[in-house]
Specification:
6 helices, binds coenzyme A, Aminopeptidase, 199 residues
Length: 199
């Protein structure tokens, strides 16, 4: 998995396209502008000192499949707020979101030198699992503050200290990739057999 900067028009357009989907922006907070997050806005955020944005790739190639980010990067208190979204649906629920979150925290603590990263998850969002697996600690609940389709949801608040961070270890994506390769290998073998028997 690689983490790439949002520094090319193609990547900015791709990432903006992911965020403007309701399935993503409904769980995020762009001040009500989620569906209007443009490549230009992402470019401005990517260049600002208070944000740190990266797209992540699969293990297979360098195509971006999701975005992870830190908002409110504060170099005095060494804190920031984490969020992310998966882009390419075919890679969903295969462990990439968890892997990206956990490895991104390593970058936040080791490379950026942050001490504490916080995040929140609107109640009902299945991505809660990712935050828990990445080791975030539940610190409270902000009630009735997140609106989806006009209905208020609580936000569950979490934080993670540099001293607590341990990169998440899980071989699910390797197993999935292995299984896919097996299927492709068997398919190729069957194809080979089919082709041979048809002559
Ligand atoms: C959060 C998100 C990036 C997860 O990406 P992902 O690559 O599917 O993540 P993982 O494969 O690591 O998923 C971890 C677990 O959460 C579950 N999950 C995550 N998002 C889910 C969704 N939208 N629907 C159902 N289950 C979901 C997965 O099934 C998986 O559980 P499992 O391992 O028990 O099967 C993606 O769902 C997304 O873009 N959601 C919308 C934006 C969002 O909610 N961001 C989080 C706010 S910080």
């Amino acid at each position: 998995m690689k983490f790439l900067p949002l520094d090319a028009p193609g990547i900015l357009e791709l990432a903006a396209g992911w965020i403007e989907k309701k399935e993503n922006y409904q769980w995020l907070d762009f001040g009500g502008a989620g569906h209007r997050v443009t490549p230009m806005l992402l470019k401005i955020l990517a260049q600002s000192k208070t944000h740190f944005l990266r797209v992540y790739t699969s293990e297979r190639d360098d195509n971006p499949i999701g975005i992870v980010a830190l908002n409110g990067v504060d170099r005095t208190s060494n804190t920031a707020t984490f969020w992310g979204a998966a882009g390419d649906k075919s890679f969903r629920s295969r462990g990439y979101g968890t892997l990206a979150a956990s490895r991104f925290m390593t970058i936040a603590f080791r490379d950026l030198g942050l001490y504490s990263v916080n995040t929140w998850v609107a109640e009902g969002n299945p991505s809660l699992k990712i935050i828990e697996r990445a080791g975030f600690c539940f610190i409270g609940r902000q009630r009735q503050c997140h609106y989806i389709d006009g209905r208020p949801h609580d936000r569950l608040l979490f934080d993670l200290l540099a001293s607590e961070h341990k990169e998440y270890e899980d071989d699910r994506w390797h197993r999935i990739e292995d299984r896919r390769n097996d299927v492709h290998r068997k398919g190729a073998m069957n194809f080979g057999r089919g082709a041979a028997s048809s002559h």
